[in-house]
Write a structure and sequence with these properties.
- The chain has 429 residues and is α+β, with helices and mostly antiparallel strands.
- The protein has a domain of 151 residues.
């Protein structure tokens, strides 16, 4: 009898260890998968206000719910989803589903495909989702001052497509890895990294929807990203990149560091509130495709061998404009530095800085300028005005005409051509 009691006592701990998995196996056996699928679809659709499609659902043996082929469509349509996930694991128990609660603490998403679209009228496809209020108030049993539960989202092997119809920009970010924290109406992309045109793009974003209009701030870093036809938005930062045709790509490699913040989800509100700063460099540009370079060659006799160059700038964004005092285009080892602005409507106004032309040249080159009797004010006479689609280079009034030159723009152009030839022969050689 004593031996039997000892054996029974030894079995008690083992029984306690077996109870949880046996209980979970029983729950899996009696819980209808189709019921759980319908329940999850209803909860997600209620939260997003969008139509949902789900390919399959499986309850995990060790806990959690596994979703397959999840799609979230646009408002009023199920055939054009803006969100897709090949698979997702939700840290939620069947007991929560039975109680009607879907409040996981962690979601792991693999094979994400997300579309971010800005239409021709300036509206965002996700604007109504960003402005969407909570679907229902919290239970009265829950303290209204209590912060909503935090949700960690881990992304693996994702893809984000950014489409900006007004500027005809189309970017495809692949191999996404990231960590997102979501708490109520606040979203924090702590780190997001992916591949873009052979380079690396990193993003951090904080979005707050607790105010009347969504407030956001973001930092973007790009390294060794190859430019293509879908990079048209960059012309607001570097108008020199504006191409001679609508389909001609400027080529080149991009390095950039940008910080922006703003409020709103419409074109008007963003134009009014957007502020920021940053730096940008594009190397190995195909100059013959640049509107600026074509106009420059019409004024100055540049070497025919000059086909590539680089451009860089430190800039600020405020009051609907991108402004800089050091937009630098380097052609044949000669930097042309301009100061000016481009607004969000595409209008621009830049002028060459006279101080930069001598400050950036070596002592020997400055001596040659003196020997040639070249006034740096003549070299700074260039002014770029107009729009990104109709850029014009002109001579600032009162500069080249000070020495008594006459004949208007034609005489000024000839003098600039002469300066270009003399500079090319004596300095750039």
């Amino acid at each position: 009898m004593k031996r039997s009691r000892v054996r029974l006592r030894r079995l008690v701990p083992l029984a306690f260890l077996l109870i949880p998995p046996l209980f979970w196996a029983t729950v899996l056996a009696v819980t209808p998968t189709e019921w759980a699928r319908t329940r999850i679809l209803a909860l997600i659709e209620e939260e997003t206000g969008r139509p949902i499609r789900l390919g399959g659902l499986k309850l995990g043996v060790c806990g959690g719910v596994y979703l397959r082929d999840l799609e979230i469509g646009t408002t009023g349509s199920t055939t054009d989803p803006w969100f897709k996930a090949a698979s997702a694991r939700i840290d939620v128990s069947v007991l929560q589903l039975l109680a009607g609660h879907l409040e996981p603490s962690k979601i792991e998403v693999s094979g994400l495909a997300l579309r971010v679209l800005r239409r021709d009228d300036g509206t965002l496809e996700l604007a109504d989702l960003l402005m969407r209020a909570p679907t229902k108030p919290r239970s009265s049993a829950v303290d209204s001052t209590e912060a909503p539960a935090a949700l960690d989202i881990l992304l693996c092997d994702g893809q984000i497509t950014i489409i900006d119809e007004p500027s005809r920009t189309h970017l495809n970010l692949t191999k996404i890895q990231g960590h997102v924290a979501w708490q109520g109406r606040q979203l924090n992309i702590q780190h997001l990294q992916g591949s873009l045109n052979g380079g690396i793009l990193e993003l951090a974003l904080a979005l707050d929807r607790t105010t009347k209009e969504p407030v956001f701030e973001s930092r973007i870093r790009a390294h060794n990203v190859e430019l293509d036809q879908g990079s048209n938005t960059l012309v607001y930062l570097l108008p020199i990149l504006a191409g001679t045709t609508d389909v001609g790509a400027m080529d080149g490699r991009l390095d950039a560091n940008l910080y922006v913040k703003g409020q709103g989800a419409t074109h008007e509100s963003l134009q009014r509130s957007l502020t920021g700063q940053g730096s940008i460099l594009v190397d190995s540009i195909a100059l013959e495709r640049s509107r600026f370079f074509v106009e420059l060659k019409n004024l100055i006799d540049l070497p025919d061998t000059v086909q590539v160059g680089s451009v860089k700038s430190d800039f600020t964004i405020q009051r609907g404009r991108v402004a800089t005092d050091n937009l630098t285009l380097e052609i044949a080892n000669l930097p042309i530095v301009m100061a000016g602005w481009t607004d969000f409507d595409g209008k621009l106004d830049y002028q060459v800085r006279s101080d930069s032309l001598t400050d950036r040249l070596p002592d020997q080159a400055r001596e040659l300028l003196g020997e040639l009797s070249i006034d740096t004010r003549d070299l700074s006479a260039l002014r770029v005005r107009g729009t990104l689609q109709a850029m014009q280079l002109s001579v600032a009034p009162g500069l080249l005409g000070q020495s008594g030159a006459s004949g208007g723009r034609g005489a000024e152009r000839e003098r600039l051509r002469d300066l270009g030839r003399r500079m090319r022969e004596r300095i750039l050689r």
